[in-house]
Amino acid sequence: MTEQAVRPANAPADHPTVPPEKVGVLLANLGTPDNYDYWSMRRYLGEFLSDKRVIDYPAWKWQPILQTMVLTKRPFSSGAAYKSIWNHEAGESPLMTITKAQTAKLTSEMQERYGDQVVVDFCMRYGNPSTESVLNRMIEQGCRKVLFFPLYPQYAGATSATANDQFFRALMKAAWQPSVRTVPPYFDDPDYVSVLAGSVTRTLATLDHEPDVIVASYHGLPERYLTEVGDPYHCQCQKTTRLLREALGMDRERVITTFQSKFGPEEWLKPYTVEEVARLAQAGKKRIAVLAPAFSADCIETLEEINEEIRESFEHAGGESFTYIPCLNDDDAHIAVLGKVIANNLAGWLA
Question: What's the pTM?
Answer without folding.
Answer: 0.93
